[in-house]
Write a structure and sequence with these properties.
Four copies of one chain form a homotetramer. By secondary structure, chain A is an alpha/beta fold. Chain A has twelve helices and 14 strands. Chain A has an eight-stranded mixed beta sheet. In chain A, strands 10-11-9-12 form a four-stranded antiparallel beta sheet. A two-stranded antiparallel ribbon of chain A has the order 4-5. In chain A, helix 2 packs parallel to helix 6 and helix 6 packs across helix 12. The longest helix of chain A is centred in the last third of the chain and has 21 residues. The radius of gyration of chain A is 23 Å and the shape is globular. Strand 10 of chain A pairs antiparallel with strand 10 of chain B.
Chain lengths: 424, 424, 424, 424
């Protein structure tokens, strides 16, 4: 039987559905942050916002209207006082300091949604039960609503457990999508003293009942925007006066895709979006590209990224235009620490509802929890990324995505069981 | 002294300002067309709309919401009944048939505005006098408001003149900007019986008081949109399944700009706008390009256009994507008939306010009146494009453009004087 | 103890050095073929040349002056009568038909050299012992001289062995470098009746004493030449009349290198050589490219090749030039049959000088023996590619390449031992 | 009647044919220089070679084997002693100093041939009369053989004329083709003291009998070679280690051809030759391009050249390769001084055989005599480029080119008549 009572499970489901109904895309999670703060404070936690939690100078991919988003958050039920307290940057952490000697264990829960329109199909559970997104274009289609609810339930269980030792820190991360927030949290020093670090994800293509103590095979990735700035001129009357940003971008795009493969492992580059020009008869004075690079290792990722920089600089030179490269997100790669992963797997074996436990499995995506994992490992600690299987109605990021809520108590029990082992 | 009395001149200015306040971009001129119709009918003319005036199958660069535009036009003062009469296509013609044997003379007045935001500078005359555009993004920045007002004043003078012989047809053309409407008017046969054709433009870089009986040196131009349609695929997970429209467009753009110059004369090509892709991590499934080709002669224009077609087809082939080329506008070139130009110049010499008369001067732009000019000349008639100098506050198409209204009576007198010569 | 007596070993070394001194690049092996024929005939074999051995219509990458090469071969010691017998195509096969029922076993030995200049370094063994290449630009830098000598020694051993059953066929293949000759041999039906097929290579990065019963992991590859034919015109005087093959090739090259990676496995494409144009002031009327495509599987190879074809066709279309694609070589992939590989490994264990026997090891190159291997396997036979370790002075194809001649008797014993098992 | 007697005319024809039979391409004119020196010395002139005549540091497009060419020259009849005197650089000047006060007049005669194979058609005059080129690939197909012979005949006439005043300097220029030698002659100061400068060309598309006192409309041009140096790597095994010079060149070529046209006048750029790469399976470590830029004015030429530099640098940057740009030739533009041109025309009117005299006519090519013309004009002198019509059998630079030799005495008389006017 699970550690969590029926009340906690019920609460967890209700909170997940409330969050699902009010999804907030990366860096706009003012309502979510306020709700999380409210609940944690009610449990007796002190919460930490702003630069105690995240270093603004390392924030990536953030371009929002803070006032408008705060206004919306309040309209959607956030406590106005807390919204003011939050400041400009969303997310928070809380810490349980038992006062007893023991290890420092940090857990990460991501709270942002994805940019997608939720399906209105009548078979889509949120439609049936009436908790679809109220924010068009935003949707919890990657289970972060579940992660947040699980984190809150765990906070409750931990608070009630008098046997724990050491410190347990709970991170509620903004902007995991696009791997934008993780580095700035790491830079704030939130895991510098950690003995253990744990991140967790529901789903990942595995059914409810399967639990993986530590997933591997993350891809390093960098999201970058490139802007070329040239000079517009009438294409008929004085073409020689233009500095053509469109052609610089076109040339860059072609040559970026021609970066040589690397015999050391897989690499990827995609210019996914190119927008250039102002009018048919004007030499295009500007161009914007959205690019993504990937590599199986840090070295491969660096290889592609460095080649990309050379090409972009060269293309700008060719057309005598200026350029800026803006990192919009970045994740490195980390592997789960084998001992900690094994400990999680062991803890999972006794959890109700778990039918299959694996130690490791490869993961073909990116998560900026890796910054935190690697930081902990480099300083001598252990880190793992737990995969909690969950049946899903459609693939991650799809408008019809929905996950089996019975996976939530499993996740909660696995996490609580693991913390009991580490800090018990 | 001019033929027009003070009343007509005052009316002309008032109408110009009313039109300036209610600019309508190409194919949306429902209010303008209704107003013109209303005035011409009041003068006793029968007006002709729709397929009698313009052949829909030859219309280019038209992508509008007819109902919404008609609704707007009525809200801005158009007579609802006339708006209904107009049908889907704006513009109209009216004819003065004297009943007496004589030549057929056709005059063209363009009525659309340009896509520009009007300046709110306090020195801008429309600001001072309170007749700035009520339609954001649209502005009469190329003097077509003046042309329309002149055309209406001429209609009044002609109606009052009992001495005229033959027929005089007045064309009020939509969508001259982007050279989109002229060909479709020609295709409707409006000049097939013309002995004389006259188009006219204010400004053209010359001061008030200068008049050119016939300008020359128009550039042939084609405006084309290109769409590439490929297939999106996850750039990390299955890049091989994508068919990359962005790279097709980038490759096309580069090679289009590399079309060889032509020793026979000047040519131009500009890819002014390129928009491609949906998301950073998706192989771009679509791309859109706005292109303009030009040539000093029909042959040179055809050379560039044909090379462009080859390159676009080749780029699509390269990336296994489909493509469509849509002509959004086209103008050929025509030269003013020397005899008719000389006759206009002669007529201009006696006009009040004219300080300098030239027979010919080169023009470095395009106008789809050339379709009408060439048609008339090919069928044995004479055609000219008259330049009426006018001081301007800024260049054509600029948000601060404004022209000296005293050029309007000059234009009116030149036109009326010319018609008197031809049909007197 | 090895099966081969000292005489055979000594002969093997002498022949290898004679062949090393007289290297012949693919399709020019007239001296080598004549020498092999002479020796085999002396042993009592009948040899088969020409279309009995190789199908001319499937020959790739051959562009030689037959008469000049035959003349050279004779000057370098080939028997003029045999050179005449050979006809236009080099290489041959001989067969030992025991007259007794038994399996058909086919062995392949490649005889051509590589295009490289031999090192004149005093530490280079052929320099020390005076058997460096007499043919500048040609060098046995891939051990085919050893392979040929081993094949001849094996022929001698087989002829002396009265206990053998079935048939044993020995193929002496021309033009393995560039994977040009294998397909045409397969097309001649030389393995259609084979129960067993064996190819063998010395070196492959492994030291003397190691033997691998069957190597795997060949890469599929296609070597292709592309010619664009346009039209030259004076670049200053009439650029518009040119059809620019140089730009077609440049555009093709860039876009070929931008072929998307394939998530199913590694692929490669290289435009290694591009030559275009005739003069500085002439629009380039021609362009030639040497290209290589690779893939880990037949499907991946086909993916790259098919994309390459589309791009080449598209580039030609862009510049209104014609194009031809000529395959200059091609190899598929095949895996060694596990049972046969194991049998070879077993046989190797008893061979003198063998210190380590492996069953399989990956190979990161291409060999057109794969056509023969796959053919045999598809028809129900077994095939293997044996790796015989040999210390080398430098990498394969390097001008300082030299292999440890003591690996030759090991290879001979492994092959003879294997044949004894199969046909004994 | 012409000033030159029959003897001089006969000599002139004989010399022209001897030179035609022994053509020498730019910078290899050792036989021609020696012959010219021999004849001038026989007439009593002192000749000046080497750095007195040409500044080596400004020599362009010279890549020859001096010893081999001198050897050839001697074999073809040059005086070995003079060949030794010449030094490394061909060409020479001689001066007639009358000792009497008067102007300094400089005349330029170009002596090199073009790179072309002479036609062996039986109708080709040199075939008929047996004076075709003995140097395969080299041919006097631009009449410089005639120019040289005329220069020598003029030297003789001048020497005999006791009435002349001032100084007359005769320049025999090497390497006019490819506009390689002119700048270096100018740099040697040969026209710094000139009051008058005269260059002359036969043919130019006009028939025998027409004379133009001063042609205009030269195009500025620069001939440049570009070398990219990257790094070779095995395209299959370690493509990431390569730095691809072929793709740098391909990208440069495409973008060079996409340099925007200039509304101020005609410009041209041609990448006429591109050679890159070493082998099919090696990332190309090198690339070479032969490029030509042109412009109607110095400013237009500079516009294209500067854009080209940016693009080449950018392309190198893109592929992390180094590059060098080497000027292989350059000509500016100059216009004939009207007064001097008129004086020449006047002089031409009295010349026997002249049927038509023009003052100016446009010329659609380049000649590095312009460096000398412009230099003289900038220092206050007058300069002209005389066009002497001559019927030709085919276009300049064509293998069947031949000019009507009766144009030579006309040219001689025009030049002599002009000098008489200037220095008489």
């Amino acid at each position: 039987m699970g550690a969590a009572g029926d009340k906690i499970k019920k609460e967890m489901t209700e909170r997940r559905r409330d969050l699902h109904r009010h999804p907030e895309t990366g860096w706009t999670e003012f309502r979510t942050t306020a709700k999380v703060a409210e609940i944690l404070r009610a449990l007796g936690y002190t919460v930490h916002f702003g630069s105690a939690f995240i270093k603004p100078e390392h924030v990536m991919g953030r371009n929002i209207d803070v006032d408008a988003e705060k206004k919306r958050a309040v309209e959607q039920g956030a406590d106005p006082k807390i919204v003011t307290e939050i400041g400009d940057y969303t997310g928070l952490y809380a810490e349980l300091d038992t006062g007893k000697p023991g290890p420092v264990t940090v857990l990460r829960f991501d709270i942002d949604c994805v940019d997608a329109n939720e399906s209105m199909d009548e078979n889509h559970l949120p439609v049936k039960l009436g908790f679809t997104s109220v924010n068009p274009g935003w949707m919890h289609a990657c289970a972060h609503d579940g992660h947040t609810a699980i984190g809150l339930a765990l906070a409750e269980l931990l608070k009630e457990d008098q046997a724990l030792k050491g410190k347990i820190r709970l991170l509620f991360q903004p902007a995991e999508e696009g791997v934008r927030g993780g580095y700035a949290m790491m830079a704030a020093g939130l895991v510098d003293d950690a003995d253990y670090f744990i991140a967790m994800h529901l789903g990942l293509g595995k059914p409810t009942g399967e639990v993986y103590g530590g997933v591997d095979g993350f891809l390093c990735t960098t999201k970058l925007d490139v802007d070329f700035k040239g000079f517009g001129a009438h294409a008929g009357g004085e073409p020689q006066k233009g500095r053509n940003a469109l052609l610089a971008a076109a040339s860059a795009a072609l040559n970026l895709h021609a970066i040589a493969p690397n015999a050391e492992g897989a690499t990827r580059l995609n210019v996914g979006v190119l927008n250039a020009g102002e009018g048919r008869n004007v030499i295009a004075p500007n161009a914007h590209m959205k690019i993504e690079t990937r590599g199986e290792t840090d070295e491969l990722a660096a290889y592609v990224y460095n080649r990309a920089e050379q090409i972009i600089e060269g293309a700008a030179k060719m057309y005598d235009v200026s350029f800026t490269i803006t990192k919009q997100g970045e994740a490195n790669r980390a592997d789960s620490s084998p001992k900690l992963a094994a400990l999680v797997s062991e803890a999972a074996k006794t959890v109700e509802g778990v039918t299959c436990v694996g130690t490791k499995r490869p993961m073909a995506g990116s998560d900026d929890a890796c910054w935190l994992m690697k930081r902990v490992q480099e300083r001598g600690g252990q880190a793992t990324y737990i995969g909690i299987g969950a049946d899903t109605a459609a693939g991650h990021h799809n408008g019809r995505f929905d996950f089996d809520e019975t996976a939530m108590p499993i996740a909660l029990d696995v996490l609580y069981g693991t913390v009991k082992q580490l800090n018990g």
